[in-house]
Structure formats: C-alpha cells, structure tokens
Amino acid sequence: MSDLPLIHADRAVPPPAATTATGGGRGRRLRLLSGTDRVVITLMVLVPLLLVLGLVWLPAGATVLLSGTNWDGIGPIGEIDWVGLKNYDDVVHNYPPFVPAVQNNLLWLAALFVVATPFGMFLAVLLDKELRGSRFYQTALYLPVVLSLALVGFIWQLIYSRDQGLLNGVFGGETDWYGDPNVNIWAVLVAAGWRHVGYIMLLYLAGLKGVDPSLREAAAVDGSSETSTFFRVVFPVMRPINIIVLVVTVIESLRAFDLVWVINKGRNGLELISALVTQNVVGEASRIGFGSALATIMLAVSLIFITIYLWTVMREDKR
Amino acid sequence: MSRPRSQAEYLARLVPPSVAGLNRRSLLAGAAATGALLGTGALAGCGDSDSGSGGDAKSVSLGSNQSDPKPKDVIAKVMDGFKTSSGVTVNVNTVDHNTFQENINNYLQGKPDDVFTWFAGYRMRFFAAKGLAGDLSDVWAKLDGYSDAFKKASTGDDGKQYFVPASYYPWAVFYRKSVWQQRGYQVPTTLDQLTTLGAQMKKDGLNPIAFADKDGWPAMGTFDILNLRINGYQFHVDLMAGKEAWTSDKVKKVFDTWAGLLPLHQPDALGRTWQEAAQSLQQKKSGMYLLGLFVGQQFSGADLEDLDFFTFPEVDSTIGAKALDAPIDGYMMARKPKSKDAATKLLTYLGSKDAANVTVKNDPSTLVANSGADTASYTALQKKAAELVGSATEIAQFLDRDTRPDFASTVMIPALQQFIKNPKDISGMLTSVENQKKSIFTS
User: Where is this region: Disordered (chain B) (predicted)?
Assistant: First the structure.
C-alpha cells in the first residue's frame, strides 16, 4: 500500500520527461522526483525484490524441483537423478507418519481456531474493561509468548513427565501424557493453546484500544447492551484486526513445529508435516528429495490460505 | 561412551542444551574427550601445509567434533604428545558436535581437514565408497594392539581400511549388585532364565527390565541384541545393508521374541527418556536395564560402584552370545589431505598406545580401543566392559550406525515405536518397513 503514492507521482510526470534524461540538469525540472529520489526508489524496489526472490522464491522453486529427485545431498548437481512423482507417491502410500501428520495439523488448526483464538479475544475484551490489575493480567497472559518455545516445551515436560511430572505427582495418576499417542496430542495442544491465547489477546487488545470511544458512547446512548455493542458495533469495526487474527491462527497451526520437536521430534502421535520435513531433510538423514516433496505439499496448502488472505485484503483496498 | 552421538544426537541438534538434559551432555563430554583425541584438526582447511604427499610438512589439520571442554582438553593433550614425538604441529578445528554431524556431507565435499573425527559403521563405509575418505591401509600396517573385530569395523566395502578406532562403549544389561545379592538373583545365561528371573522380579515388586524409547533410538539396542542372538552377526549386517527382507521369518522371530519379553519391560516406554529409565534402576525400582555403558552417567559415588552388568543371554545355542553392539568412535582421513605424509603420521600416532595412554590418564570415562594401552587406572566396570568387548567375536555398531541414516531415522524409529505401542501387528509393521526400505535403498 505504501507504494501507492509513488505510482501517482509517476503518473504525474508527463511522458516528455524522457527528454530530460540526458539533459544534464538543464532541461525543464518538472519532475516530481529528483535524480536522487529515483535512485533511492529504484534501490528501495530492487533490494527487497532481490531479497524476496533470493531468499523466498528461489528456495521455494528449488524445493519444488528437488521434490522430483532422489538427491541425498552428496555429489554435484549434475548427478541428481530425476524420479518424477515417485516421492509424492511414497509420501502418500508408503510413509505411515504422513496421514497422522495431516490429521494432526488439521486438529491443531481446529483447536486454535475454535478454542484458543476465541478465548484470547475474550480475554482481550475483559482486559479492555480497565479492571483493577489489568497490567498484571496482561503480563501474565503474555509471558508464554515471550518465552522461547524450547523453554515452553521444557516447562511442560516438567508438568507432563509420567514418572516425575507435576500432574501425575499431584493427582497420583499414571497417565503417560507424552508417550500415549491418544493423549499426547491433546496435552501438547493445551501447551500450544496456552501460548497462543496470550498472543491473540495482545493483538486483539491493541485493536480494541484503537476503536473510537464515541462509537461505543453512541451505541450506549441508543440503548444497546454491552453484548450487542460488541457484536454489532465493535466487532465489525475491527475487521482488519479480525483478519490478522485469523491469518495468525492459520499460520501458527501450519508452522506448528517447535513444541512437538522439543517433546519427541514429532513422532509417536505428535506427527506434524513441518516436523516430518525436518526429520527428512536436516542432518545426516539427508533424504532431501523426499523431504522436499513433503515441504512442497506444505507450501501448496499454505498458498491456498495466502491466496485467500491476499484476495480479501486487495478487495478491501479497492473499495 | 557417549551414545547420543548417533540418532538422538543429530536429531537433538535443534534442541537447546538446557532442554537436552545435562546428564547426557556430560557423558558426551566424556566421550568427546576420547573423540577429541582422535579428531582435533579437521576443520582447519587452511592451506598451511601445501606440500604434496611425502613432503616434509610441518603441520596437519584435524577436524574435531569434540566440543565439550573436557574432551577438547584431552585432544589438545594428545596433539601435544604427537608434536613432541614427530615435530609436526596439529591445527585443531573444533566444531560443535551436532553441527559437525549435521554438516558432514557438505564438510567432506568441501575442503575438509586432513584428519577428522567420525564413527565406525555404515556411514564410514559409505563415505569410503563415495571416495570422500582416504585409504588408511598403510597406517594399519603400522598399528598394533587391535583385535580383528576392531580391524573389521575399520574396513570399507573394498577390503581396505578407512578408519582408526580410538574409543568405544559396549551395550549390556546393567543391574545393581546390592539388589541382586539381597534377593539372591543369578545372572541369566539363556533366554528362559531371563524370563524366569523377570517373572520373579515382577513378583518381588520390581520392574524387571527398565525401558525408555521417547527419543526413538534406545529400542534399537533391544532390537539389535535380539537380532544378533537369534540370527547372528552376518544377518544383522545384511539386514542393515538392505539385502535381507524385513518380512522374512527371521526378522519376525526377533519381534515375536521381543513381544514375549515386552510384559517384563517397564510400561509406557514411549513417554520416558533413557535418563528416567536409568534413574529407576538407580532407585532400585527396576531390576535391570539394557543400555550402553553411558548408563553410568546417572550413577555416582557408591551407586556407581554398585553398578554391574552381564551380556545379553543366549537365545539360540548355535548362535551363542558372543556378538554385541559396541559403537566405536575414531578418526578418518580426507580424500585429498594437504599433506598425506603428515596426516598418515598423525593417524598412526592416534592409533598408537601412546595416544591411548594419554586418553586413559586424562579421561576416566572412556574405554580406549588399543589393547596395548595401560589401563591400570580403569574402574572395575571399565575393566569388565573392556574384557567383554575383547572377548566378542563380532562387534556391531548399533542400528543407526550400521544402516543408512535416512532409513534408521525416518523408517525404523516410527516402526519400532509402532511395535511397542501395538506388539500384536508385527507383520503389518514389517510389511510397511520392507516397502519403505525398498523405496529408500533403491533410490
């Protein structure tokens, strides 16, 4: 959006500008942009463009290409064998962890979307009421977001450990929180949700603070209840924030990785696509072709959400 | 000694040390000390000795993964010893252990150091076959003090040696002497005796066999030892090389036997780390534990002296109980060392008993590979472990060092965990493993 004014500025320059290009400064100086400006603008466009191409699209394209090979990371690029769609076939038909990983990613998305995100928004609304000690609550709720996920994983390990953990210690149970594949995904979702709630809470709270108070006053004058004020006035006004919260939730569930990796490297009930990619590509295993196929699948899924998001945002801009 | 070098280790790289567990770290450190001796200079890649082979090089580089302070120090001492005896300076390039292992492919294809630390096993033979490691047959002609088992473990597919062993740690069944004396348990020598003993322990309120597989690799040790006892060493090697079918009756028998033993194992193993399982042995809640010598990290003082072990009992009398897992750490040479002469000299020294003596003196947590070393300062446990390995007819390197790393980590870990979860569906699990193996080994 920030480049919109530039486009207008460009249009403001009449085509004859070309004649001044070689004029060495003697020509008409009608340009809105001086030579320095143009250099700066060119750099400002070129540098990010190169960064995006080099750091995002080039690797992404390479990943897609590599997913058609069986490269093991050894030997010159010329010796890489093309195997077509074999890796995809293997992923779907010959790789037991794949299906659970997809299910877990979806479950993750559902849990964050249905439970954690609404709860975070709810807390934000509460905190927006200027309760006594709301600073303290904010800090407490936001703290998990500040902690590194590795540390979060460790904290929950202390709570969930079967033989030495807090939960079993206090309640005297024998539940194998991290080891039982029927239980561990829920245990991890609690830990992930704990963190996600704080994040959403802060985002939403910032949005709420930005809502014009006169809107609420007007609603109150019109005799609207608190609930209907929120749902009919505040919530619609917060549309940009709502979209951001939605996107953040989707992104968080797609890229979920660190917690399960810290717990058991994404195995035994905690499979996630991102963890499978890492297992295959990183380190000695070097199943680069196969891991790239998994990564490409993930990229495709992400693109769907990104497209929807961009489409919504752009439509918004046109209005 | 530091078992985590393999599977767990490389996957654990992403986990910060604070989470990874201090105990394992310290073990690693001990192991690293030995390794450090071996691997000091490889990373340098700085071109200080450019004389061709046979030149009078004054320095040689060593790439070391021994990044913990103690092993690093031991390597430095060994390198001092080499300088004194040969006059050649060693430039040690130490790289974080995990990083080293993670980057090994790129490292060896780039400008590796003249000599570098590595492990015996498939990965060593793989690099040799790919032409990424130097032939050390002439070094081996000058080495003595190594049993045939060590030489076999240092030999590539083409029959030449590519590896100089430095240290190792055996896998065995550990127990507390005091508990066994108090209850009058006898060391089992056959599978039946083990089963009977386990039943007795259960009656006495103990977990017969401590067990943990949260990290995925410890169960490989159980599979390995059962496979070695039931089908023998050669089958293990062929199976790991992808030559034998996982769906064969031989492999099924291993899992059937294991399924019979599972009720004696500590339940809910998939949520437990090996440290926790070892602590259950230390706290006298479990009767025995099949693990590497590094289990001692969880013991200290009098508890450590109370620790003893026996080799896993015989299952098939025609196979015997003489083979075992004893992963070996050591050194290899780059394919094109800057000074082959100096690198050869260094490797010869690293394989000598002088180098081993320096290690023994400076690091009490290690078993050195050279039998000529002065091991008088070994603890009783170390001495016994050395005897056990010395009497072994064959030494396997552990599943994840004996086969392709991609197969071990992306297929075997989930499969073994699946088996532990549901020991009833053995053939379904093995069919899946075989299908994945075919896809991986033919790629």
Answer: 48-71
